[in-house]
Amino acid sequence: MKATYDFNAGKRGAVIPSSGKTRITIHVDNDVLESFRAKAALEGKGYQTLINEALRQLVESNTTPVTLENLRQVIREELHAA
User: Fold this and answer.
1) CA 37, CA 31: separation in Å to the nearest integer?
2) To the nearest whole percent, how much of the chain has pLDDT over 70?
3) pLDDT for 3-40, tens place per residue?
4) Structural domain contains residue 11
5) I need a labelling partner for 67 at 20 to 30 A (CA). Which of 7, 20, 29, 60 fits?
6) Rounded CA gap, 40 and 34, in Å?
7) How far apart are CA 42 and CA 17, in angstroms?
8) Does the predicted TM-score (pTM) go above 0.70?
9) Which of 51, 58, 59, 53 is nearest to 35 (CA)?
10) Does the residue 25 lie in any domain?
11) How far apart are CA 42 and CA 37, in angstroms?
12) 18 belongs to a structural domain
């Protein structure tokens, strides 16, 4: 290791920019989140991946706008299938 390091040319932010994804914060009911986590553990996937797949399925299969009720229905169906 060097005794000192020069960070004058350093940049703030993520080291590796992600492409095609955006970080957001959402509030999800605890029981919904736990169900996705349990299903993810059984399938060996991440729970965020499963949520993303459920949302994508809704968007691709339905030309009507995504409403809160539609989103809740999709999440219920996914949880029921688990």
Assistant:
1) 10
2) 94
3) 999 888 888 776 776 778 888 899 999 999 999 999 99
4) no
5) 20
6) 10
7) 30
8) no
9) 51
10) no
11) 9
12) no
The residue assigned the tokens 């009507």 is 64
In this structure, is residue 21 part of a structural domain?
no
Domains identified in the chain, total number: 1
User: Is pLDDT at 1 greater than 90 in this prediction?
Assistant: no
Give me the count of residues in the chain: 82
DSSP per position, the chain: --S----TT---S-SS--SS---------HHHHHHHHHHHHHHTS-HHHHHHHHHHHHHHH--SPP-HHHHHHHHHHHHHH-
How far is C-alpha 50 from the geometric centre of its chain's CA atoms?
A: 8
72 lies in which domain range? 30-81
